[in-house]
Design goal:
Jelly Rolls, 31% strand, 6-stranded antiparallel beta sheet, alpha+beta
Length: 352
């Protein structure tokens, strides 16, 4: 007698299921939540963020941010299956409590000049284009000491940490001299990161390069004016066929990515350039610093301008094209390449 029809019921009772009945669910991408190419418009984002800044007090919001939610991953507020982030607004005088977490985080300033993040005792001021890192496990708090609102892009590796279920191992109550504090004291000299690490090819022998429990770059702030100077010095060099004049922010101690899971870079596409096509197993989020253009893909395109944010998920053939005939295009980029590389999963292809 054939009892095959009884197998599913009996298997489910003991936490099993049949491969031959579930092969499509396991192997067919159609059954998975999958990030899609998408662009978030600054013109749509800004008024909503401004309204939240007026209506939602910091005490209620904890972190006043609008999260970027990829349509292919709803209801999870993820940009891709590995990247999470949002846009934060701090009014003058506002301060967020000191905290830390397992996900590594970053801030890229878009507006205002009074913002700061204090990381492990170093108060890192920020202006447009500055990048501030909080590697996993580092204590940090944010605030705005200026007279105008401060706005920045937050990007984290939270989905990676969530996939490993590794968010429960932190102590989240900040203490100084055995007393619980809401804000940490500033213990490092002004511009500590830049003073210690701001000269390429030179490393201080007298300082510890492990800061807090962080496992990323000990240089917590990367200044935009330094990035512009580096780009200017390389303006006559041959650009990458796909990414243009691309500069990666690196750990000054070992020359690697600034975080174990994420890579940060700036791409300059010259006026009139026509880049090659590219696809990768990595996913990349871009923010437009200067200029306007389009991401051309097989079957469509995304148009974007200053302060817009867009994502190119893994496996997408694309190229970013400068639409300004008389100006260069500058893009800030964050990718999960380091995580994929460590797992032996990074593959990159290009074609003319």
């Amino acid at each position: 007698m054939n009892h095959r029809h009884e197998l599913p019921r009996s298997a489910a009772d003991v936490g099993l299921t049949e491969y031959w009945l579930n092969r499509d669910v396991i192997e067919d991408p159609a059954h998975r939540g999958r990030a899609v190419p998408f662009a978030w418009s600054w013109q749509e984002l800004y008024p909503r963020l401004a309204a939240a800044a007026h209506e939602v007090p910091m005490e209620l919001a904890y972190r006043r941010a609008l999260l970027f939610m990829n349509p292919g991953l709803r209801p999870k507020p993820y940009i891709t299956s590995t990247l999470y982030g949002g846009c934060s607004w701090y009014n003058p005088g506002e301060i967020a409590e000191v905290h830390r977490h397992q996900p590594s985080a970053s801030r890229f300033a878009l507006a205002g000049d009074g913002g700061y993040t204090t990381v492990e005792g170093e108060k890192c001021s920020m202006r447009r284009g500055d990048l501030i890192l909080t590697p996993n496990g580092t204590w940090h708090d944010h605030g705005n000491e200026g007279s105008e609102p401060v706005i920045w892009i937050d990007l984290l590796d939270l989905p990676i940490v969530a996939a490993f279920n590794a968010s429960f191992t932190m102590e989240y109550e900040y203490r100084e001299q055995n007393a619980v504090r809401k804000h940490q004291s500033v213990t490092k000299a002004k511009d500590y990161s830049v003073s210690l690490y701001g000269r390429g090819g030179l490393k201080a022998k007298f300082a510890s390069h492990r800061r807090g429990q962080g496992r990323g770059s000990p240089m917590f702030v990367y200044r935009w004016h330094d990035t512009l100077e580096a780009l200017e010095a390389m303006k006559d060099m041959e650009p990458d066929a796909c990414d243009g004049l691309a500069l990666e922010y690196v750990d000054p101690v070992n020359g690697g990515a600034v975080l174990p899971t994420l890579s940060f870079s700036v791409h300059c596409h010259r006026r009139g350039s026509r880049p090659h096509w590219k696809r990768s197993t990595a996913s990349t989020v871009f923010c437009v610093i200067e200029g306007r253009g389009a991401t051309e893909m097989e079957g469509g395109s995304m148009r974007w301008g200053k302060n817009d944010l867009f994502v190119v998920p893994s496996g997408t053939w694309y190229r970013n094209v400068n639409a300004e005939a008389g100006a260069d295009l500058l893009l800030y980029a964050v990718s999960d390449e380091p995580a994929l590389d460590k797992l032996g999963l990074l593959e990159v292809e290009e074609r003319p």
